Amino acid sequence: MQRLRSYLTIIVLASAIGAHGAAAQSDAKIDVTGKWVFNVTTQAGTGTPTVTLKQQGDSLTGHYSSQTLGETELKGTLKNGKIMFRFPVSAEGTTLTVTYTGTVDTKDSMKGNVDIGGVASGSFTAKRQ
Fold it and tell me: pTM of the prediction?
């Protein structure tokens, strides 16, 4: 019985290590570098900003461009298929932080939520251009 438990423990550990390695490997294949077109819907309306991303490891930098919020630089992360980036915007003399959080569904699509400084929120889908 003790030998069976030891054997099962080894199998469980090997499976866990293998699964972790596979997750890390698939995460390494996700690269969101490039130009993306977003479709954003908030309580205040809709928009189609363009976001250019540069990925280095799990760090993101880039540029956000929209008719509504203007042009600005952004910073963020991509970890375990979850993306997050944020940038400051000025609205009527107040600086707000816009935060996008979501998931990368395929190499060319992502979706999630946007929070505009706690003043407005909504959802987004994005496609690589």
Answer: 0.78
From residue 87, alpha-carbon distances to 3, 20, 61, 82, 106 in Å are 57, 32, 10, 17, 24
The CATH number for 31-128, chosen from 3.30.470.20, 2.40.128.120, 2.40.10.240, 3.30.565.10, is: 2.40.128.120
The residue type found at 40 is V
Domain positions in the chain: 1-30, 31-128
Neighbouring C-alpha atoms within 13 Å toward the C-beta of 77? 3
Mean pLDDT across 7-33:
49
């189609």: which residue's tokens? 48
- The string of pLDDT tens digits covering residues 55-98 is 999 999 999 999 989 999 999 999 999 999 999 999 888 999 99
Note the helical H segments in the chain.
2-29
| Cα–Cα distances in angstroms (integers) from residue 111 to residues 15, 38, 102, 128, in the given order | 31, 9, 5, 12
